[in-house]
Amino acid sequence: MNQGFISTATEQDISMLDRLVNSAYRGDSSRKGWTTEADLIDGVRTSEESLQAMFQNANALILKYEEAGNLLGCVYLETKGENLYLGMLTVSPGAQTNGIGKKLLSAAEQIAIDRTCRAIIMTVITQRYELIAWYERRGYRSTGETHPFPDDPRLGILKQPLTFMVMEKILQKTQA
User: Fold this and answer.
1) Residue-number span of the structural domain to which 79 is assigned
2) What is the per-residue pLDDT across 93-131, written as a single tens digit (0 to 9) for each?
3) How far apart are CA 116 and CA 110, in angstroms?
4) Half-sphere exposure of 82 (CA within 13 A, CB side)
């Protein structure tokens, strides 16, 4: 079995990231994995333009997971004050359940520790129960805060009213 590796994505990866993220979140291709937004939202999850904007944010980076020359996963990370925001955690539908998501999450947590962040925060659509349970098994908890899903066709066409819940994982401070 090939050994994958995690590295920082660059602007040269935008087209591949766009294809990966959209295949994993929406449409029929996303149904090959264990979690999808296809029953909740139509349209694309991201675009090359929105990914380009992510690369322009000096407080952000995208990690990518590659194996045998194939892009199989990614995650967006942005320092926001004392927290690290985690978004767009993506694993190719055909490669889900192989531990790639856990590896990307672990790498994100290490970055948060290295940056002396208080916590990792994220938003998850409240109707994505299996995904919420996956994050909870990894130590993330609901903060009780919610936000409405934006009514913006660039983010997708809602099939029903949706809400984001804010989840966080408080990072353990190591003793010196």
Assistant:
1) 5-170
2) 999 989 999 999 999 999 999 999 999 999 999 999 999
3) 10
4) 5
